[in-house]
Amino acid sequence: MKISVLQHDPAAHLPMRHGDPTPVSRNLNPLMHPFSRARERTRALNAAKMDRMFAKPFVAALEGHIDAVEVLCRQPGSLTSLASGSWDGGIILHNLSTRKQITSIPQAHKGKVSGLCFSPDEGKRLLSCGVDRNIKLWAVSDDNTTPEVPLSVFPGKAAFNSIDHHRTESLFATASNTVQIWDETKSASISNLTFPTSTETITSVRFNMSESSVLASIGTDRTFTLYDIRTGKAERRVVMQMRSNALSWSPTFPTTVLLASEDHNLYTFDIRHLDSPTQVYKAHVAAVMSCDWSPTGLEFVSGGWDRTVRIWQEGKGRQPEVYHTKRMQRVTSSVFSADARFVMSSSDDGNVRIWKAKASDKLGVVTARERAAMEYREKLKDRWRVDSEIDRVARTRHLPKSVHQTSKLKTAMLEARRVKEERRRKHTRVGESKPKPEKKKLVIAEQS
Amino acid sequence: MDALIAKADAIQPLQKKRKTYHTSAPSSSKTKSPSKNADPTLSTIAKRTSIPKSLQDSRPLPEDVPTYKHIANKKLRTHLSRQSEQGARAKALVEDAEMLLMDEAGGLEVEDEMDRTWRVGQTDVVQNSGQEAGKGRREFKLDGGPYRSRYTRNGRHLAIVGRMGHVSTFDWQSGTVHAELQLEETCRDITFLQDHSFFAATRLEFLPYHWLLASVGNPGYLKYQDTSTGQLIAEHRTKLGACNAMTQNLHNAVIHLGHQNGCITLWTPNLPHPAVQLLAHMGPVVSLSVDPSEGGRYMASAGRDGTVKVWDCRNWKGAVREWTVRGGGDPEVEWSQRGYLAVASSGNVNIYHPPSIHTPFHIRTPPPLYMTHPIPHRPLTSVRFAPFQDVLTVGHAAGLSSILVPGSGEPNFDSREADPYENKKARSEREVKALLDKIQPDLITLDPELIGTLAPVSKLTTEVTPVIDAKGKTTPRTEVPYARLPRIDRLREREKRRMRGKGKSMKRYLRKQRKNVIDPAAVNRRSEKAGKTREEKKRAAAIAAAGGQEEKKKPSALDRFKRSK
């Protein structure tokens, strides 16, 4: 008879020396882990609740402007510097980490500063344009000195609406009644780009980041136009239902462009197929005034006339993260920080606000265990998103009453419109009219 | 211009057709030329964004991974197939991890055909076991009536209680006593709560994952108390009098009660009545136990009538196996972690081993005996297997005696669930974690896998009767969910569902009266219908008799008024 009795070896289960970690033994047999699913669900619910509990996105408000802030621009190569231009004609260079002003130029322009951009040489020079028909080049440095006079002034013929610098060369483009290309060393514009039949005012212009000779503009004629500075021509133009207020090129997908539209939506376009947008982003309840991609290209921020800042996942057209405060007015400009952890917004109340890009993000040092726990919680939430209770906790956001009421009204109106359309179709001959997909409704004409 | 654009690769001429990615390249002569249809942007990005080769899983996917080819939505399809792929890989990895289990289960193995395992006595086992394992054989001689005992979940600590009120908890391996009390009242049972520092004494069970203490007393009220908040969660009146047998199913947290009239009832805190009630024995039920090794599938019960029955908890149609124990007294039953069943009756503890315990057998004989051990101190009041040890503790009139049962204990424990070697810090950490993971009591159901499964299809559907085509094939109409219906249809639906006026007292009264009344209109309708079908049958039979050909009717002048089909 063979007799063997179970005997654990304490040496295998106890720490070898004092202070050693206790060895962990695992048995993955599911019978050893009763209620594993129910426990995991509890954990997921807790994760969702913790996420909402720690959601404190507002970091700081930077003051300094006397009037509404119109434009924001982050300094290339720096995580902490941010330039802002205001309706009072002043420009301030903020330090985000110390929350102090590096440089302040109180009377940079007469009237509002409508555009700001840095030249790519380590961000030492700042270009600003205004409605006073001037472009000014400023030297900015960290030593807290205020430049009295600009390095150079480029006079134009019409009020400027936007400015953007070429990625590598010393060229920049401005938007007024045409798109003009300037050289930093020459006082007059070197070329004018315009679509042959256009008579519109250009509101914004942006260079593509990887295909650096391509630039895009949007205009008051509800248009989006693509130019190439090598040919000096407008290559393609799209006319949409409503005008766009801002545009931004994706930093990771060179063919993707994001438009913030007056019709409360944002659209991403693949410039190879301009006949319809690749995705519609719907949540704002008023015109979207600004948009900016995160440097990762996975998310972007938008600010709207509805006094909210929203952070979207690329490709997910609903339920963005929404930020608001009692005192924030219409959001005029919003940018992502270079490390994708923060979002800056400027608004009509004259403040620049810093927000976390992820509302429940922990600032400061995160240990490896903490990081692992966070990642686990993130995964749990993702996995149990189909559970209605967990989804409800994760999804619910408090909105200001005005936004909430407006969104309710908007839903009702859209619903009524849908019903009406449905009835109209019901009473027309079969096959005569087809419902048009939302994506196809946007573009009216594509011209080249 | 076009050349420039082609160089830039970003914009392509408008008139050109869209790219098709699935065209095959028939020309084999130009081998190295880059495909015209390749997306240059994608190819430049793909290099940087793919997972490095060292991190890619090169092993082939396990078979029968579900595919989602029928799903049209590309994003969803990719997401689902990636998920199922990951799941399949994880499953394969779990199977691999079984090799890492360190300890092996004990056991008795016969070498000779005529040898029998039950001939082995405790002296032989102790002689042949290791020094540490041999310590499991002990005798505690104690005054104060028959004793009952309970182990903690990690098998390290033991709580004992005497009938006269002597209570003690101690680490049975090192012999450290945690508490010793003389309660000076009758004590019927003892249980540990979340760890060895908390215990409670009467007839009760602690549900460790729900932090619920279930207790039942002589009045027959089953009470669920939340030990983390102190609230009384539920109180059920069993209506079956005093209850002497109680146990829990570890895998679904259902409480099993055995009553004086031979009934066994299964309870959850969410139902005011038992989830299952069955008449199991001719006399009072005295002991119950649920098999932890099969996921709580089998239950053993013992009655004062001297029978032991093994039940299948999924199918309550009679016992799977039953037998009568010898001698008088109340038999006690208990399953071990690996499915060994101990039955204590009169002066013996008999141990049976799986799978013969729950293989159906029509003759009322006990399954083949695995081990037996005589104890001279009657009555034997409790049998408890120690988790993660080959030890069985028997409580009796003169104290307790623990014996070695090779093979009964699970050899590999999981430190995250229950660790016999955990230190103070690990214990406190586990307590905090367990509190965070506390499952809400309303999630207790008979089927523990209910959570995380798909909800059943809603009964409030707008599905119309299925379409039956010419071949007699039935195809269900495509169902439009209520939310997607046009508003007018929605209103119509809502009107249909509205039960307005049905609950009025007069209507209710009339409805009740209507139950046994033969309504002449309904009778008429029914007879009409029956007549119609009869006629149809007759006609069909006539056709069949005529050789499958329908009798041709003579054309009539009145045919013009016939409704065309």
UniProtKB/TrEMBL annotation, chain A:
Domain Sof1-like protein: start-end pairs: 357-442
InterPro entries referenced in this protein's UniProt entry, alphabetically: Sof1, WD40/YVTN_repeat-like_dom_sf, WD40_repeat_dom_sf, WD40_rpt, WD_repeat_DCAF13/WDSOF1
Keyword field contains Ribonucleoprotein: yes
Localisation: Nucleus, Nucleolus
Entry GO CC: small-subunit processome
Organism superkingdom: Eukaryota
SUPFAM superfamilies to which the protein is assigned, alphabetical: WD40 repeat-like
GO biological processes: maturation of SSU-rRNA from tricistronic rRNA transcript (SSU-rRNA, 5.8S rRNA, LSU-rRNA)
WD repeats by residue range: 106-148, 281-313, 324-365
Keywords linked to the UniProt accession: Nucleus, Repeat, Ribonucleoprotein, WD repeat
Stretches for region Disordered: 9-31, 415-448
Pfam families: Sof1, WD40
PROSITE patterns according to UniProt: WD_REPEATS_2 (PS50082), WD_REPEATS_REGION (PS50294)
Compositional bias (Basic and acidic residues): 429-448
Similarity section: Belongs to the WD repeat DCAF13/WDSOF1 family.
Protein name per its UniProtKB record: WD40 repeat-like protein
Organism field: Gymnopilus junonius
From TrEMBL, chain B:
Keyword Phosphoprotein annotated: no
Pfam families in UniProt: BING4CT, WD40
Subcellular location: Nucleus, Nucleolus
Bias type Polar residues, positions: 38-57
Main location: nucleus
PROSITE patterns in the cross-refs: WD_REPEATS_2, WD_REPEATS_REGION
A biological process from GO: maturation of SSU-rRNA from tricistronic rRNA transcript (SSU-rRNA, 5.8S rRNA, LSU-rRNA)
Composition bias, Low complexity: 23-36
Keyword Signal listed: no
One annotated Gene Ontology cellular component of this protein: 90S preribosome
Xref: InterPro entries: BING4_C_dom (IPR012952), WD40/YVTN_repeat-like_dom_sf (IPR015943), WD40_repeat_dom_sf (IPR036322), WD40_rpt (IPR001680), WDR46/Utp7 (IPR040315)
Region of interest: Disordered: 1-65, 496-565
WD repeats: 278-312
Keyword field: Nucleus, Repeat, WD repeat
Residues covered by the BING4 C-terminal domain: 369-448
Biased composition (Basic residues): 497-515
Bias (Basic and acidic residues) ranges: 525-539, 549-565
Name this protein carries in UniProt: BING4CT-domain-containing protein
Organism: Gymnopilus junonius (Spectacular rustgill mushroom)
